[in-house]
Specification:
The relative contact order is 0.14. With 194 residues, the protein is of the alpha+beta class. It is globular and about 45 Å long.
């Protein structure tokens, strides 16, 4: 039964496509080579060629394990720091200058609505809900995600933090207040800003 669940969980290429660029920028060609030798053969096949950003890939083989390898090799197993930084990098990489301008001038409400759509369209199966708590805070919940892992939660938190920075928000706080990895009914990101 567990194997069937693993096969069902997928991630769209646009989430993982910035990973090689992140490694090259921060750890150079030697770091990239070290990482390429550490990942599984299945992951190597994904990352060895240009990644089709619209294609679906195995979540475990293409994101969870390779991201964990990055934490192991370059962050002394600090998964939070590694994945948070990769999420921030992905936010910068994933948006064109025009998109960043829209984020900068858009309302935080529209940014969260778009984030909700993006997460739902980049992982399957997955469902999210956005709960407005005040003008300067939100609760973002991820549920129906059978293969949730800390790598995904930290990556998402870093990505959201960076999107709010692009929007011009200050004193941003993103906390993972509940987690599917700890038997909660959903993963919850508690987000606040000024």
């Amino acid at each position: 039964m567990a194997d069937e669940t693993i096969l069902k969980m997928q991630v769209r290429g646009r989430v993982i496509s910035s990973t090689p660029k992140f490694i090259l920028k921060n750890f150079g060609k030697e770091g990239y080579q070290k990482w390429a030798e550490a990942i599984s053969l299945n992951a190597y096949k994904v990352y060895n060629d240009p990644i089709d950003e619209e294609k679906w890939f195995s979540l475990r083989e293409s994101l969870i394990k390779p991201f964990s390898n990055i934490a192991q090799l370059f962050y002394d197993w600090d998964v939070k720091k590694a994945c948070w930084e990769m999420g921030r990098f992905n936010a910068d990489y994933g948006f064109t200058n025009v998109s960043k301008l829209r984020i900068k001038v858009g309302s935080t409400h529209s940014i969260f609505e778009k984030s909700d759509e993006l997460i739902n369209s980049n992982y399957k199966p997955c469902s999210t809900s956005l709960i407005s708590t005040s003008d300067f805070s939100r609760l973002f919940r991820i549920k129906d995600f059978p293969e949730m892992d800390k790598t995904i939660e930290f990556h998402t938190a870093g990505w959201m933090e960076r999107i709010l920075e692009i929007n011009g928000c200050k004193k941003i706080q993103v906390d993972i207040s509940k987690s599917l990895t700890q038997a909660h009914p959903y993963s919850e990101l508690k987000i606040s800003w000024e």
